[in-house]
Specification:
mainly alpha, single chain, 0% strand, Chromosomal Replication Initiator Protein Dnaa, Chain: A
Length: 143
Amino acid sequence: MIQVSITQLESVKKIIAKAERDIEIETNTPVRLQVVQLSQGKVGLDMLLTYVANWFGYTDRQLKDRSRKRELVDVRRIYSMLANDLLAMPFTYIGESLDRHHTSIMNLYYGGHRLLDVKDDVFVSKYWPVYRAFNLDFQNNNI
């Protein structure tokens, strides 16, 4: 669970109010923006972590462990990429879900995209099947 301070909530309220004003000025139409919590009725990071871990035959705990074996690192990369690309989760939240600093998540994320760019056979054969399955399940609300 992510804990948020009152100061952080006030900052979010100010950002939303400014965005509402800016949109109203640009479009000459009043708008009301809302903050939506992903974990209620939609896919959250915990659900994604379990989905990816189970896909590859691991537990959530194994993905959170400190092992640097290629197999586990690749699964963490895939989780980080799906969380950011499909769920638009920030690196800090992804890091909290894996008990890691956000810069470690950035390294996993960008490293995974580099492996896709160079068409690394091992990584590509792992990434695309889970990406397609998760994206399909996500869009069809099967999760």
